[in-house]
Design goal:
The complex is a heterodimer of chains A (about 260) and B (about 300). Chain A is an alpha/beta fold and about 260 residues long. Chain A contains 10 helices and 10 strands. Chain B has a two-stranded antiparallel ribbon. The chains are: A alpha/beta (about 260), B mainly alpha (about 300).
Chain lengths: ~260, ~300
């Protein structure tokens, strides 16, 4: 669905990514992990027309999207959930959903918003509240719901677990996994919570200093002791799947 | 009504619109628009041309004033601002580009004034617009009509921003342009509409102000410090704060001049602009976020919010 070929990009004159090659297969969950400053967010920004592409190609469904304006990419079916500022804090939850479905007709947006409150019941309670008053976990749920409002073909998720309590981050990861399994959405996810992301992901890329250091199955990266300890700060998996010791509470219970 | 109060009300209504115009454009495009000066002057000349050449009342030409201002706003966006915003120009560059546009407009205003003199034997360089007004309930009609027009215009703008899909999209873009773009909102269109509204507001504000002050080709240039002062007093981050700031500045000028000239003599008139600017400085020293940051306004805002929440 998405191919990034020899991408060199950055901001202004500053180059962040160097000859990057990435493929995002249909209906799969592709995970990009790496240390801080590796260029993970820049990769998503380059795809979305926010960062500056110096050279290289970004192909979406076979055609180049380099130079396209962000709102046109949204129209093509690419949905982007940024790491920070991923909801309109001054608008109500309902207005946030409607803005996310800006390209839909009034009726379609209404139906889709109702569908989102079914998928994420926590939003129903706060539908007329300003998004800025929601807790971190609720905001992230709203951000994902906003991403889904557009009926996307491809979702770009930027570090959804940032600043979340581990138990809430785990719930968010489960939602991502469900979006792939039940809704059949193609996902490119950038994540710092590397271990959990690699467990649910299909394909993985390890990004270090703007270059790809690993390409392959997500699960296999967890068995690379050197890469795991040097760049991800996690212990490689040696035996059976580790239990995180996290029990995820039922939807609707309090979080922070 | 005392003359200072009636003139002040007319002038302050105009200043509220122009300060609102400056604020709107700043919060949407980060552009501090100097061209508001000439747009206001052009608003006056459209009204003057109408009454001088075709007769009637100044008020009937206000729709034309808004249209001309809106078109000139759109030209500035397409000709300058759009390209600079795309290149992520600094605020100072955006501001100076509007100064250039203002000087171009000022040149056209001067040429147009000469044209009216040579072709129609008019004297457009010192015009007292209120001679074209009529009396209503023993007052100049402008005292009653202009605040009503301003309130209707601003209510319409409020409904547009709060209730329409495009208005909400505009607020969304103001808050988070990246997320708005990712949601499929075309920010170009939002910026264009903000220039159109802002241009219309500035021109309408100028035509209001000319009902209280002498209309000249440089009347906008004279009043621009106060237009900016109104926007700054309002806190720059809030459209409604800017409108209120403009109104307060306008009324303070007239009330201050009246009160001080009664006490110290007519020489105070020469320093009339200093009075509202002093008020702005004092207000900002006490409330650095301007009128929008005063707890009273916050409290009123939260009360309205609670009421709405309870009814929802």
């Amino acid at each position: 669905m998405l191919k990034v070929k020899n991408l060199n990009s950055g901001y202004g004159k500053l180059q962040v990514l160097y000859d990057l090659n990435i493929q995002v297969p249909d209906k799969g969950l592709t995970v990009v992990v790496g240390p801080n400053g590796a260029g993970k967010t820049t990769l998503l920004c380059s795809i979305m027309g926010i960062a500056r592409v110096f050279s290289g190609e970004v192909l979406f469904e076979g055609s180049s999207i380099v130079g396209e304006l962000t709102h046109n990419l949204a129209k093509k079916g690419i949905s982007y959930v940024p790491q920070m500022g991923n909801v309109f804090a001054e608008l109500t939850v309902m207005d946030n959903l409607h803005m996310a479905g800006y390209m839909l007709s009034k009726e379609e947006a209404k139906d889709k918003a109702a569908q989102m409150t079914e998928i994420f019941p926590v939003l129903k309670k706060f539908i007329h509240r300003k998004a800025g008053t929601l807790s971190g976990g609720e905001r992230r749920m709203l951000a994902i719901a906003m991403g889904l409002m557009k009926n996307p073909k491809l979702m770009l998720l930027d570090e959804l677990s940032t600043d979340l309590a581990p138990i809430i981050a785990e719930r968010v990861m489960m939602e991502v996994s469900r979006m792939r399994d039940e809704l059949g959405i193609t996902i490119l996810m950038v994540e710092q919570m590397a271990k959990r992301a690699l467990e649910i992901g299909d394909t993985a890329y390890l990004l270090v200093s703007g270059e790809v250091r690993y390409t392959g199955k997500a699960d296999d990266l967890l068995h690379e002791p050197e890469l795991c300890s040097m760049y991800l700060g996690i212990k490689p998996v040696t035996g059976k799947e580790e239990n995180f010791g996290l029990s995820v509470p039922e939807e609707g219970s309090e979080d922070s | 009504m005392a003359p200072w109060m009636s003139s002040g009300l007319i002038y302050a209504s105009g200043l509220a619109l122009t300060a609102g115009s400056v604020t709107l454009l700043y919060i949407v495009t980060r552009t501090f628009n100097f061209a508001v000066a000439s747009l206001a002057t052009i608003g006056f000349y459209v009204t003057y041309t109408g009454v001088a050449l075709f007769g009637g009342l100044p008020y009937q030409y206000y729709p034309a004033v808004v249209i001309v201002g809106a078109i000139l706003g759109a030209i500035c966006y397409y000709g300058l601002n759009k390209h600079l915003l795309r290149r992520q120009a600094a605020e100072i560059t955006l501001m100076m580009s509007t100064l250039g546009y203002d000087l171009v407009l000022l040149s056209f205003i001067q040429m147009y004034a000469d044209f009216l003199t040579h072709s129609y034997r008019l004297f457009p360089r010192r015009v007292t617009m209120n001679i074209y007004d009529f009396e209503l309930f023993g007052e100049k009609a402008a005292v009653i009509i202009l605040p009503i027009i301003a309130v209707v215009f601003l209510t319409g703008l409020h409904i547009f921003l709060k209730k329409t899909k495009f208005g909400v999209a505009m607020r969304a873009t103001i808050e988070n342009p990246v997320l708005a773009g990712a949601s499929g909102i075309n920010s170009d269109r939002i910026y264009l509409v903000s220039w159109i509204i802002s241009g219309g507001m500035a021109a309408l504000g100028g035509s209001f102000m000319a009902m209280a002050m002498t209309g000249t080709p440089v009347m906008g240039m004279y009043a621009i410090p106060l237009m900016f002062a109104g926007a700054i007093l309002g806190g720059l981050g809030s459209l409604y704060g800017g409108i209120l700031g403009g109104f307060v500045i306008g009324m303070t000028e007239y009330a201050g001049v009246f009160a001080l000239s009664q006490r110290f003599g007519p020489w105070v008139l020469g320093y009339r602009m200093g009075i509202p600017l002093l008020l702005m400085v004092i207000t900002l020293l006490v409330f650095p976020r301007g009128l929008a940051g005063i707890p009273l306004f916050k409290l009123l805002g939260s009360l309205v919010g609670k009421k709405r929440g309870a009814s929802a």
